[in-house]
Amino acid sequence: MDFLTTIVTILYYLFIAYIVFILVLNLIKSKTWEKEILYIIVLIPFLLRLFRLK
Amino acid sequence: MNMFTYTEIILGVMVLVYILAKIFKISTELSMLAAALAGSLAGGFGIPPRQIAEGSITYLDINLIFITATLFMNILKESGGIAFVVRGILKKFHKNRALLLILLTFLLLVPGALTGAGSVTVLITGGMVAVVLNYMGISKSKTAAIIFIIAGLSAAAPPVSLWAMMTAAGVNMPYVGFFMPLLIPCVVAALITIFLLGWKGEDTNIEKALQELPLPPDKMNWFKVILPFFVFLFFIFMGRQWPHSTPIIGLPLMFLFAALTSFLLSPVKLNFIKISRDTIEQLLPLIGTLTAVGILIQIMTLTGVRGLLAVTAVTLPVTLVFAGLFLMMPVSEAILMYGAAPVIGVPLVLLFNTIGLNPIVALAGLSVIWPLGDALPPTAIIGRLTVQVVGYEDSYTKFLKTCIVPAVLIMIIGTVMVIFSKHLGFLTGL
After folding, report:
1. What value of ipTM does the predicted structure carry?
2. B165 FRET partner, CA 20 to 30 A, in A37, B336, B341, B368?
3. pTM of the model as a whole
4. Where are the domains of chain B?
């Protein structure tokens, strides 16, 4: 059971890393300042979780 | 200066900055963020990084559900699954208007119910259902109204209802027992809407409708459409059947497995990264709103504004609250979008709980009314999106007028659920 729970946790971290990658890709390609700010704000919680700060 | 005056000034600053930001045509998400930062400055807390970080992560789990569910729906659409289902239903049931309308209603309800976002319903099935409705002799304004109202109801429908989830989280109430109290009014109201606006029309012009609908790939079949849903349902069943020997997988991972199944079964080669990027782009206003709302609520708590609103709501005359629900809910949604749930919903649920109503059923009632505000300015995101997807080019006011009758019925259903929530408590199954 512990092993499976660890797998699930790892999968979540991998998925969050993937979302961060996609968010950064979209941030680089975005053309308006409003979208850029929004992408940066949206990135905050995902980075906090990815780096295990929250 | 006493405590109330201090928090009222901060609230005033936040409201003023929000209005100014909207006047300068800044998006709702950034306007809420500006209001939060202004409130913090006015309260003498400067720009507090810790509170911003804490607030931004509040709705991370809901954002994950949003992203994975929409990714699943987008993969299903790109693989031709949605077009296959719409064409299949049309071919089989075009002679039976009532059955066709019922099936189209469920087709509209599923994407929003799974993702919690009305915009996903509009984007995934809305366009194709609109084509069918048009060839059933239903006018564009009525078609747009049907798609908008049912998209809103789909967002409120279970298993994922963001208004209910966010409000429940705000009052430390588990998101349990909401399934039937949300499902019944949403399905009933959706069916009433489609029959009210779509019953009168002409015989379905199947040839023209099929010509306009996208063609699914040759190798697409019912098995490939249904299996990903079975994978999702299997994980839910597994968790409930063997709770002590199954790890907690969580809705995001369940949706992700369903999305991967749909991706692997797709008869056409799909670009996973492109679909992911489009999904994030499509959801940016919504996940941005949830992140900004988290920060706003955190700052409101820090400065005492949240407490002020809660105390004010709890001491309001109950009759006034009941009588004002039909106005308060849509207007708060139009201004704050999902932010309306933690800002307005939380104090209301506290009030309902205080006076002995059933908070689950009452919150479900509120959740049914909230989506109606998505057609109202200043935001009107889903309303405008619907009009665009349906190809309705007449005046926006005419579209709003077409929505009035079903909207009033939904307001009545929601308000009745709140008032009689105690008697309807059996729906929760708790």
Report:
1. 0.96
2. A37
3. 0.86
4. 1-47, 48-428
